[in-house]
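Lab notebook, bench 4. The sequencing result for the construct came back, and we need a structural model before the next group meeting so we can plan mutations. Quick request posted to the team channel:

Model the 3D structure of this chain.
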Amino acid sequence: MIRYLSIFLFLVSFQTFSQEKPIVVLELFTSQGCSSCPPADTFLAEIKNTMNDKEIIPISYHVDYWNYIGWKDPFSSKEFTNKQRDYAQKSFIRSVYTPQIIINGDEHFVGSDKIKIQKKIKQYLRKKPSSNTITISNSKVTDKKVSFSYNIKGKTKNKTVHFLLVIDERITSVRRGENRNRRLKNSNIVVLEKIETIKNASGNYELTIPKIITETDSLRLVALIKDKDWYVKTGTQIAL
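Done. Here's the predicted structure in token form:
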């Protein structure tokens, strides 16, 4: 049995994001094999640690197209690379790059450009809130599964719900590649994402815990609602 699950179970918090304020979701596409990525990873950690987590949800997806140069990023996934390419196609971008931050599925920027991203966060926080809300409750954790209930308010036609398991933080000693001999700290690392077309406004759901999770990891469950163009409508997160 994975011991951390019982250790962190008492940390479960219940957070509801109302329609009173907009939500800003930052999706960082990064890689441990990219020498330009560590500053963006550090910046994402700063956002996570200093900004209001009821308004800002920063997460990182590790892509796999840097693995060929000698270091296989343990968090990298072809699925996340395809996700970034889908965003590029939607935005008519010819090629993908790292580090890249996408804000609310709408705009993209170099992930280490602090001034521009901070300015954009403020702009998005002043936008009209979405009419959608999503809440998570009754979360239960075993050594292999995370189960929970969800409830969505607002119109759900042509929208999807994204359930993510996220590692709070992990330090990796990189032995090869562009970042060889460096100890890299990554934050809010997405290790699992399940996307469902919304058929019912409420229900129960279950996620299988990936093998990459260790006994010492602290996990979060993130739930996002996106429209057909992948623009973020709302989100919520709880600690597990």
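Residues 38-50 form the longest helix (13 residues).
Will bring this to the meeting.
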